[in-house]
Design goal:
447 residues; alpha/beta; Rossmann fold; four-stranded parallel β-sheet; 19 helices; 15 strands; 40% helix; globular; binds pyridoxal-5'-phosphate
Amino acid sequence: MKKVVLREDEMPTSWYNVAPDIPGGLQPPLDPETKEPIAPEKLAAVFPMGLLEQEMSQERFIKIPDEVMEVYKIWRPSPLVRAYKLEEALGTKAKIFFKNESVSPVGSHKPNSAVAQAYYNKREGVKRLTTETGAGQWGSALALATSKFGMECKVFMVRCSYDQKPYRKSLMHTFGADIVASPSPDTATGRAILEKDPNTPGSLGIAISEALEDAASHEGTNYALGSVLNHVIIHQSILGLEAKKQMEIAGAYPDVVVGCCGGGSNFAGLMAPYVPDYLEGKKIKFVGYEPASCPSMTAGKLAYDSGDVVGMTPLLYMHTLGHNFMPPGIHAGGLRYHGMAPIISALIRDDIIEPKSVHQLECFEAGVLFARTEGIIPAPETTHAIRGAIIEAMKDPNDPKTILFNFSGHGLIDMAAYDAYFNGELHDYSYPKDEIAASLADLPKIG
Ligand SMILES: *Cc1c(COP(=O)(O)O)cnc(C)c1O
């Protein structure tokens, strides 16, 4: 069997929330001013109650609203595919499966959460959402989602991506969103940063500050975040729950689950539904891959840190490189974030997830091999997961182990990155040790 396709009526009807199953639990988010656990009312300034309840929830299963399900069905359920041709090219006995999330209208897993977030905001009377986007994938997803629910959308797009990726802008415009390069003249944060450095490439941390400022200062406007937070990971569990069912139909069970990690949402979405099995003693490994140039899991610190540059977000207990860390301009824009989801960070602390880092050239090489064998061009972010799956498969090519990875998105709007790779313009960045140390020195002081 090459691929497993579920019927619509076989789709999961609830999301899975891993929070109650994390052995060491989660640390609460803190108020950036008082350093005490933050009051939900304070978060209610920019998030709807429906999402805040999920953020704090200890329920394992949360019903997917019918309105969300209806939009999911534009592309869901997504296929699970066996990568026979890749296995053959590698000469491995490993069975490699991938969950293909590139089939969504914007080409990645991100609409799984965007649609849910737009729905809960709409239900509570919110008319406009603001957000940041790095590579443009999250902005596209939220533009799609807000268009489905008749809402307005404003996207602060990190300057370097804004200049590199004109077609992401076209895509967001088509769905009716308003896009501006960040830092922008539209916010006090943006104006202050532009004054100091008019040529700054921007960063996700800056764009988040701007989107939050815009939401807090406009009536009827909320803010939406595309990764990191617990509610985003709950929404992404749809892909893991489907994959688990599809693996059963394929008569397979993963020895290793692999994913690429930016803020951690696609990998958590795939692996979390397997955590209960792991806790019951099932032998299964979870390995998350991040870029060596932005190594929050493998070289960052587990500490309370701000999610943005200005310090407006609650402090999250997470693996972080420090909120002032400016990652090098690698092409996997969606992996350039200083922090990692508290859920992923807690699962690393509890020795359930094994974090690893990889360099960009080996990832592009893996991505090109995947394209030429399996016929789908991966997003630069996704090549990190492919490289990870190949590393697992080649540890012992005679070991017939089963590997499952998430194909988080396609690269059809990222072809400039492939051109740069083929032209020899991409380089591996050495691990930015000094910058990380300097940035970690600025972590907020707690207690
Ligand atoms: C955003 C993105 C990622 C990284 O984000 P996570 O929250 O870690 O999943 C990975 N792949 C693609 C295609 C993306 O768009």
